[in-house]
Design a protein that fits this description.
The complex is a heterodimer of chains A (99) and B (454). Chain A starts with a helix and ends with a helix. Chain A has helices spanning 4-24, 32-42, 46-55, 60-98. By secondary structure, chain A is an all-alpha fold. In chain A, 82% of the residues lie in helices and 0% in strands. The longest helix of chain A is centred in the C-terminal third of the chain and has 39 residues, at 60-98. The relative contact order of chain A is 0.10. Chain B has 16 helices and six strands. The termini of chain B are far apart. Chain B has 454 residues and is α/β, with parallel strands linked by helices. Chain B has helices spanning 8-25, 32-50, 59-79, 85-108, 115-143, 156-176, 180-198, 206-228, 231-254, 259-264, 286-294, 305-310, 313-325, 344-352, 362-365, 440-453; strands at 298-303, 329-334, 359-361, 374-378, 408-413, 433-437. The chains are: A mainly alpha (99), B alpha/beta (454). At the A-B interface, helix 1, helix 2, helix 3 and helix 4 of A face helix 1, helix 2, helix 3, helix 4 and helix 8 of B.
Chain lengths: 99, 454
């Protein structure tokens, strides 16, 4: 038997997937790179899971793995943000010159 | 009374809402920058609120990991040159995949994990590890710390499939017999498959592959979210999984290649036999090129990675201005994968202030080359190589800019080296082609000076 909670989670997943497809639908080639970088930043939400994993770790092995997870997750978040911001910075500057 | 714990989920809901809005904003040039700023703010709040999760400990370790990881990530991303951005995306994506794999490993080491969570963690573990290992190879290849050429060996695909199959078998065994040694073997196999999968992929295909690994990391994060019943991770991960898959398809389409072809085609690996190139390379001086352009009706500029490396975009804009002041029509031919990533050239030229409407994409500009008096190829190589039209060439089938149809083709190039795909360029040996050697920024500067004098 599959519990109602699992079904609810699957509903959420299906809707989120649909949203992802819709949002990207027709983007100009120009924005492929920033969008890839931006979505790369968004999956940095793994940091939240990594913090919970480390925070609830009991054995030394779990602590070590949890530590690595938080370390990598934090790099994903800050690095992903900085890269995306730097790429998009160029759009802003060119806008300013034209306007 | 409101418990502090009860504000975690409402905050997570707002976080994912902002992620969706951010992706939407990032799909339009005017609002793109706001998108990342709001997503960043949402991520910061979500991270802070997570500290309120009940039963959390190990705060000292957590603080160190956050500070060190966050610090390195931020510093490295700020410091690298703009041209190195593609490999930075690859490495940070790999970090996300590695984190997803490590979270799955911690979960699988829990003695009282349920079958459902264990299954989801196995899936998250395998996908996360593959994304980590694959992204690492992509990073090494783009960074030039590893040969960018595809690495192939006989029986490669059966071997790869075998490793993946074994990883799945050990994953299933883990569900029945959860022992740490089995876990180690499971992750070793998954990592091994990730490495093997990325080895045969050549440099030119890397953007598509990074995008694919990006989508995979998203899916791994979603699976971890299901296992931990953390819906912020489920929604954000699935969102990236879906958006990333879509992007991967769009990018592959822009290069006129299928995903299967990118993954298994070993692009650029085939050794070409007996295709000797006729003619010789002929060089030319900047002054002669300036005269040629001054009396032209139409000049088309085809930029590539060399322009990015030399940071020549501002000089190129100056060149456009001075040519237009002489009544010469100037257009830009933008190949979708010129540079190292789709949109690379657009971003650089936009930075320099070249209006969007001067940038023509491949299909728009190809019919215009025969009527162009001069085509200026600035640091582009593979995307203008006519060898792509010849059967048996490693580039065969790749859509290119048909610059060789123009009356005169001037190729600005640092030296006589080959392009990223490692293929000899037939264009350089054509009768209507001339080589103008030197750093792109300096050379274009010379052209501007010479033109001002004419």
């Amino acid at each position: 038997m599959i519990s109602p909670e699992v079904w609810a989670a699957i509903y959420i997943g299906v809707l989120a997937a649909f949203t992802g497809f819709e949002v990207i639908g027709r983007v100009p080639v120009l924005l492929h790179t920033p969008l890839m970088s931006g979505s790369n930043f968004i999956h940095g939400i793994i940091l939240v899971g990594a913090m919970v994993a480390l925070g609830t770790a009991t054995t030394t092995l779990q602590q070590a793995l949890g530590f690595v997870a938080v370390l990598m997750g934090a790099m994903n978040v800050t690095g992903g943000y900085a890269v995306t911001e730097r790429i998009l910075e160029m759009f802003k500057r060119s806008k300013g010159k034209e306007g | 009374m409101v418990d502090l714990v009860d504000i975690i989920d409402p905050v997570y809901i707002l976080t994912v809402l902002f992620f969706v809005l951010a992706l939407r904003w990032m799909s339009r040039p005017e609002t793109a920058r706001n998108g990342i700023v709001y997503a960043g703010a949402a991520m910061l709040v979500a991270t802070l609120i997570t500290f309120l999760t009940p039963g959390l400990g190990n705060f000292a370790l957590m603080g160190i990991a956050l500070a060190v990881g966050g610090g390195i990530g931020w510093y490295a991303a700020r410091k690298v040159a703009m041209t190195d951005m593609p490999q930075m995306v690859a490495i940070y994506n790999g970090m996300g995949g590695g984190a997803a794999g490590a979270v799955a490993a911690v979960e699988l080491l829990n003695a009282n994990i349920g079958t459902g969570s264990a299954t989801l963690s196995v899936v998250a573990g395998i996908i996360g590890a593959v994304s980590f290992a694959g992204s690492l190879i992509a990073f090494l290849k783009l960074q030039g710390w590893m040969r960018a050429k595809p690495l192939t060996f006989p029986g490669q695909q059966p071997v790869n499939l075998g490793v993946l199959g074994l990883a799945v078998v050990f994953g299933v065994l883990l569900l029945v017999h959860p022992v740490p040694s089995g876990l180690a073997l499971f992750f070793a196999l998954a990592l091994g498959f990730g490495f093997l999968m990325a080895l045969p992929i050549g440099g030119a295909d890397m953007p598509v592959v990074i995008s694919l690994f990006n989508a995979l990391t998203g899916i791994a994060v979603a699976m971890d979210g299901f296992a931990l019943t953390n819906y912020a991770m489920v929604v954000a991960g699935t969102l990236v999984g879906a958006a990333g898959s879509m992007l991967t398809i769009l990018m592959a389409r822009a290069m006129n290649r299928s995903i299967g072809n990118v993954l298994f085609g070993a692009f650029g690996a085939t050794e070409e036999e007996g295709a000797t190139i006729q003619g010789s390379m002929k060089s030319i001086e900047a002054d002669d090129v300036a005269v040629m352009m001054a009396y032209a009706q139409k000049v088309i500029i085809a930029p590539g990675y060399g322009m990015a490396v030399a940071q020549a975009q501002h000089k190129v804009k100056e060149l456009m201005d001075v040519l237009e002041s002489k009544g010469v029509q100037v257009k830009f031919a933008i190949h979708p994968v010129a540079g190292r990533m789709p949109g690379h050239m657009n971003v650089l030229l936009a930075e320099a202030g070249v209006p969007y409407d001067r940038l023509l994409d491949r299909d728009e500009v190809n019919p215009e080359f025969p009527s162009a008096d001069v085509v200026l190829v600035i640091g582009a190589n593979d995307v203008v190589n006519p060898a792509a039209r010849r059967a048996g060439s490693p580039l065969q089938g790749m859509p290119i800019l048909d610059v060789d149809g123009a009356k005169n083709v001037i190729v600005l190039k640092r030296g006589q080296g080959k392009g990223f795909a490692g293929v000899e360029n037939d264009l350089f040996y054509k009768d209507n082609a001339r080589m103008l050697y030197g750093d792109a920024q300096a050379t274009v500067g010379k052209l501007v000076q010479a033109l001002k004098k004419t």
